[in-house]
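dumping this here before i forget
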Amino acid sequence: MLIVKNDEGGRKWSCTDAETQRHVVRSIDAFLDCISSDTSHHPLVKESVTDIVPALGATLLQKNEAVMKLASKVFVKMVNVIPYSVIEPRVLDIVRPISSSLSSCHVPVVTSCATALNLILSSLTFKTEKDVIKVLEQTETINSIIQHIRSSGSKPVEFFLETLSLLSKLLWIWPSSRYRIWSDSGLMEVLASLSREPVLSIKAAVLQLYSTIALCRHGAEKLLDTGSPLVQLMIESMDDGNPSYLQLAGFTLAERFAVSEEGRLKMIESYCEPLVKAIINGLNNWTLYSGKLTKDQMSLIRVACCVSKIICWHGKHHGYFWKLGIESVLLRLLLDDLHIKQLPDQFSSSEEMISVAQDGLSANFLPVLKPHVWDILGGLAAHCAEDFTAHTLKSEHRLKFLITCACLGFVDSLRSTRQSCVDVVNEPVSKAVLLMIYSPSKYIASQTKSILSGMLKPTANEDIKYLLNFLNATSSGFNNTSDKLQVVNLISLACYSGLPQYRRYVMKNQGIKILLSFLQVLSSNHVHAERMNLSLHYCDHTMKTCCYECEEDWQGDETFLLFGLLGLAELIHHCSSVKGQVFESTEAQIVTEIYKICVNSRASGPRWYGAYLLSYFGLYGFPSKLGNRIGNVLNGDEHTNLTLVLANHELVNVHGVIVRVRCPSLLPSKELVETYNGKSLKKEVRLSAHVNHEALMKLLEYVYSGHLNAGEDLLKRLKTLAKHCNLQPLVQMLCKTRPKWRTCFPSFDLTSALGPDGSHFSDIILEAKGNTSEDWICGTCSSLKPHLHAHKAILCASCDHMRALLCSGMQESQSESIRVDLGWEALIKLVNWFYSGKLVPKPKYGCVWHNLDEQQKLNEVIPYVELYCLSDSWLLEYIHKECLNVIASSLDSASMAIKIIQIAADCFQWDLVGLAAKSVAPSYHRLRNSGELHELDEELVDIVRVASVEYSQGGGRM
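structure:
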């Protein structure tokens, strides 16, 4: 073989004669035929790979059609025959010629190259993944595949199967490449056309590609925007009459759609019953072979379990699951057929049912599916209607038996955690039992409490003492245990607190005090748990999603807080008769701590239970930072422009915009009447004779701040007024109703005031810097300058600087407009923060960000730099911190960092200059030698140099 060493010491094929190439390739082919699984790791094979790879690679790149066809096929054989561990050291030398040849105009060559690359990517290890992606980027692999799929002309089925499969694998390992797929409308049209092909394997390949596109939020939205045909195709593919590979492709896409609220709603609203039927069939239609499931069956059941977790959210689909006998389906996933067949229609006693359940569970049938079963059961229980009864079920005794199995699992979990042994199933089964105890359905809750109480009786007191001692030791810092153990113990204590027979014993042993101390430690130290059950979001823990904002999650990484608050709330709910003694010295402390949790928590669950707890201490509503700011303007007449007139002629001056947005039912839908009070024009609303002044003032306290303080004597009037005003969340708190599982926490948001709802109450205009624009159109006025119609009351409440401008008698306080030293994009973000407490719209990120050019990226970051500078002088600490985080995350290239250094220096923001300098410190010498630092003056270059020295002295760490 004509091999020579290259400059880097590697080997290179130097022959250009086609006949010689053909002969060599056939010789390699014959050699590969001689390799068996026994000889594949032989030293001779390993040594031969060093010569085979450059010979095949160079031959493939010679562009001789006949030789290319032969070489590409032999590449496929080599990757199939020789183990990946043997070829891994030369994997880049293999990937480069194969990916380069995907641009070939010869379909057989492209097909074989796609096949070979598919095989390599399937075996790719983490350590080589980044280098392989770099090669694929250099050879423009994605563009080559797109062009081939989009090109006209008939192609064999194998071509589409291999290229679509390759594209799926590329999108999986290379998230930033997804943008090029979902943003290519022409390609998406071709894919839609291919999905309608009668060939099932092509249909499955398209669905699989859709599944990887849907790993990107924008990609998923693009697919869902195509309308019903795609969702219908997906559900039809999930039908059990299809081959398993097509079913799996359909279920996988459904799983990806289920990641987001939009995807869940689209599936449930459009195809609820067919979707649920497909899920039930996917969970139920399987057969054991020699006592085992096949690999394909197990894959299908697992992904069906993942899709079925749409049950963990409220919706009409719950009724269909019960209608189709979900209780029997779940039982079949827990017990083998032998034990299922032996189940009697009726048990003579609860002891017999427990004994049969223990016997069935001891067989440990399909243990990998148990966590999914418990998640599904818990979701069903959490969202049952209050009037759910046995008549709703296809099989009542099966549900009772399923509850019994779950309670046994809970008891086993508690026993194992007492020995500090936490199994993967402990948390799901414990949480399922918790959700059944606290289920809105009295039927499920009573059945669970009855069965579990009997099981726990022998060791209940010892269990409770252990749980309380464990939490007490953890709060004191004496326990160094895993997050999982702490969570399972918190859930167990919450379960005991929900059982009437044992609740008093928990309270007698200082349960309230211990839980409060535990929550105080969590809150003050900002302790967060790892996400304990990712399967509630999606089952594939390796799923590389991109562009998905964190939905407002129910528990997030605040699992400790959620279950601690839930248990504490249940104890306080049942101790009203001894409230004076229990809380004599700690009531104010409890209110202060729980209030802080409500304001500072990032997840809905802890905030809901915090608000629920506060209602037992006379504080009703939903505390928030923005609500606290806006609440400060309630008691002053400054900038009020609306008068509420009670039947007894008492007058209450309010800010019309706040009332219009937060409590529109309090105002008439027709145009308000204006009156002149000697100083200014005010709009006037006359209220019903049924409205009490004291109740109205408390309601306004809620409207302005998001919460109110009230005594028991006023609750009845407040409930009536809140119901009349359609303030349902407030009514729920006034009635001390337990929060519904997985519902969003009511937000305090005034942004609708920036639209038609608030335009009539606007009393100030905020103008961005810049010139007038002929393209600018305002629906309220004729000004051609980019501006926003705002409200002095909200601006003054949100920002001390604005308050000083508008309320101090300065020139700006008399002006109808204020010019803010921000561009239009930055001004929008600032005003949105004033009105919502959020810095929105958020910058582009994920695969969209990675596909922007440098100027586009800079345009995304500039508004945050402007806000960073402004927030420094206006003392807006939150905005300052958030902008710094955004800017820091955008410094993903040297050119971006250099531009930020110059812009920050021009604004005298030296801490920002230092941040950007640190990001380029590792590349300082390269940048200096290439001249890229020339656009900076010497002082700034010196800052980068100093950062580089510090980087080197720190051993490569900043």
